[in-house]
Structures are given as C-alpha cells and as structure tokens.
Write a structure and sequence with these properties.
By secondary structure, the chain is an alpha+beta fold. It contains 11 helices and 18 strands. The chain has 3 domains: 3-114, Translation, Eukaryotic Peptide Chain Release Factor Subunit 1, Chain A; 128-269, Nucleotidyltransferase, domain 5 (2-Layer Sandwich); 288-374, Ribosomal protein L30/S12 (60s Ribosomal Protein L30, Chain: A), CATH 3.30.1330. Strands 1-4-3-2-5 form a 5-stranded mixed sheet, sandwiched between helices. β7 (138-143) and β8 form a beta hairpin. α1 (38-55) packs antiparallel against α2. It is globular, with a radius of gyration of 26 Å.
C-alpha cells in the first residue's frame, strides 16, 4: 500500500462510500527546529485513530497502519511540509493534501471523511492559472498561495510562428516608381500583422480553454499590455477568464514580482466575494429564503433547497447528519469514532450541486456558526 500526494478536489476516494474511513489533520511546522517534530504529532494522531479502530473492532486496516509507520519515518515526506496537511484513507487507499493554511490537529474515524479544512483551503488558496500574453507569444503559469511556476508549452502552441506556420501573412512589399511615387500592396503591413495576431489570440484562447481551464476549472488571470488584453478579451470564450487583470509587460517582471501582483488580484477578488456572500444572506433572510437555524437548515438540505451553506471554520460538532430524514444525531466529544454534523451537511449540499462557504467567526453573516441561503 502506498500514499499519493494529490491536488484534485473532490477526489474519487470520497465517492467510494467505504466505511469507516480515517481523516488526519496536522498543523505542520515549516521552520526549524519546530518542523523536526511534525512526525511526532503525526505519530500521536495515528495512535488516536488506531485506538478508535480497535474499540470498534474494525478489521482490515493493518496495511494502512504499516504505511503510516513508513510515512512517520520518511524524512523526505516531512521535508516538503506546508502549513497544514490532510491525510484521508480507507483500508485500500491513502491520499495526502499539502495545505497552504493552518489546521487543528485532529484524528477522526467516521463513516465519511472530514473535509471542511480542505474546503477552506481551496476556497481561499486554491489553484489558478496566469496567462502572460504578448503579441507574438504567451506563457502559462500555475499558482497558489505559496508559489508560482511556469508550465512548459511547446512553441508550436505558444508562439505566433509555431501556430500559424505557413499560414502567416507574407508582408506586402512597397515598390517605387520612376517618378518617385511609392505603391503599396492591398493591405498595410500593420493591418496584416493585426490579422495574424487575432488568429494567434483565438488559437491561444481555445488551446488554454480546452487543455487547461475546462479540466482544472480554476480562475485565469490575464497579464499583458492594455492593447493586447483588450483584443484578447473581446474574442475570448473562456468562462474562467476573470475581469481583473494585470496591465504590464511580462518581460518587465521577474517571477517574484509576478507572484506578488497575482496575489494582490486574488485577495481583492476574495474581499469582493465575501461582501457578496454577506449581502446574499441578508437579502435571502429578509425574504424567508435563508436561515441560521440548524434544524431548519437540516430539513432544507434533505428537501434539496439549500443553494449555499455558510459554516464557521474550525467548529466541530460530534455526531452525524441523516440526509434521508433531515435529522441530526448528536455524538459525544470524547468518542473518536464520531463524525462532524456540519461536515456531513457540507458533503450533502455539495453532492446536490450547492455551494459550501467556510468563514472565520467575524465573517459569518450572523452570530451563529451556521447559515444557509435557500434556492426556493
């Protein structure tokens, strides 16, 4: 049995329906000397999960706990730690998320995976693409909160010469007459260059959309001079291209400067999104299309009425949510074989096409730690 470091969310392991499953979250330290203790935190959390499994007399996890021991002793595994780590496993498979946010140390054995911290991470610090556009070539970057790196693209897909090849317009030559008059071809060189550039932009737009945006479904930030951005945006059909861009020549920036500018764009987008979430709940609640009552929200989830579920981060309510009846079964905090009620509700909303929003206490639209906007 091996572990796999993943970025995909949701992951197929969450759809298998196996029970029980193990969710381990570690608030990993990234600076010495504290980071040398990460494997100790992990060892203690694994012990908690193992004790819970033993108490429930569940069999079949021997290979997984052997893998956990290998992971504990693997110095390279801990060398690449980020601010937080999520390890999700059943008796056949183990995946690891390296999260760019701090999390609370937890080991949970339950009938479903605990996913709220991962939701929070992808909501705030998910991946996005950066398109650095010039008139005759472009570069594509992948970025998140911690890093940005250039994606390798073949020149046949990323340069105007590679894309157009023999179809590139041949410039018309100017011819002088004996009287000194200059005659030009049917189009100026500037016009011909513009035609080629638009063909190139259309190809770039389609290529990025088909090969990257449609697959990863992440925001696309455009970087380039104003005139290139304007032409590209007019013809782009990429629904992931956001209106906020960076007006600058990519050649004038090193990778760190580009990264800093991209982070500024994403922070601005999140602040605007937070404002819209607050306004959406206020308006819905005034029309009886929203609630912050957990019992009412539970029933609304079962009736497939919840369009958006707001949850306060790092709140854990032991127990489970029964989606078939819209009921809540409370558990005990000392029972490690206990899921989180709000996490179950979040999974139910996501499975029915709703949105789950994880917010800090001061960002919640009410004084309670749960709220919802209804579809009808």
């Amino acid at each position: 049995m091996k572990y796999q470091i993943v970025e995909e969310f949701p992951h197929s392991i969450m759809e298998k329906g196996k029970s029980p499953v193990i969710s381990i979250y570690i608030d990993t330290k990234i600076k010495k000397p504290d980071r040398l203790e990460n494997h100790i935190y992990f060892k203690n959390l694994v012990r908690e999960a193992q004790e819970s499994i033993k108490r429930k007399e569940v069999r079949g996890f021997r290979d997984l706990f052997s893998l956990f021991k290998i992971m504990e002793d693997d110095a390279l595994f801990w060398e690449g730690a980020t601010e937080g780590m999520a390890i999700l496993a059943d008796d056949e498979e183990c995946i690891v998320y390296k999260l760019p946010i701090s999390v609370t140390n937890r080991a949970i054995v339950a009938d479903s995976f605990y996913i709220k911290p991962i939701l929070k991470s992808y909501q705030l610090n998910g991946h996005y693409h950066v398109l650095a556009l010039k008139g005759d070539n472009y570069a594509l970057y992948e970025a998140d909160r911690h890093r940005i790196h250039r994606i390798h693209l073949d020149e046949k897909d990323s340069t105007i010469d590679g894309v157009l090849g023999d179809e590139k317009t041949v410039p018309h030559k100017s011819v002088g007459t004996p009287t000194g008059q200059v005659l030009h071809g049917h189009g100026s060189a500037k016009d011909e260059k513009k035609v080629d550039q638009l063909k190139f932009f259309r190809y770039a737009d389609a290529f990025i959309q088909e090969q990257y945006s449609n697959h990863y479904k992440v925001p696309l930030i455009l970087v380039g001079l104003d005139e290139n951005q304007g032409e590209f945006r007019k013809l782009s059909k990429n629904q992931y291209l956001i209106k906020e861009g960076i007006i600058s020549d990519i050649d004038s920036m090193d990778e760190k400067t580009l990264y800093d500018k991209v982070q500024g764009v994403m922070e601005g987008i999140f602040k605007q999104q937070l404002k819209e979430w607050m306004e959406a709940f206020t308006e819905a609640h005034a029309k009886d299309l929203g609630s912050d009552d957990v019992v009412q929200i539970a029933r609304a989830i079962t009736d497939n009425r919840v369009g958006a579920l707001y949850l306060e981060e790092d709140k854990f309510h032991p127990g489970r949510f029964d989606i078939s009846h819209g009921s809540i079964v409370e558990g005990k905090s000392e029972d490690q074989y206990s899921g989180d009620i709000y996490d179950d509700m979040a999974e139910a909303v996501l499975s029915r096409g709703g949105e789950v929003i994880i917010l800090e206490k001061g960002e919640m639209p009410t004084d309670r730690d749960i709220a919802a906007v209804y579809r009808f």
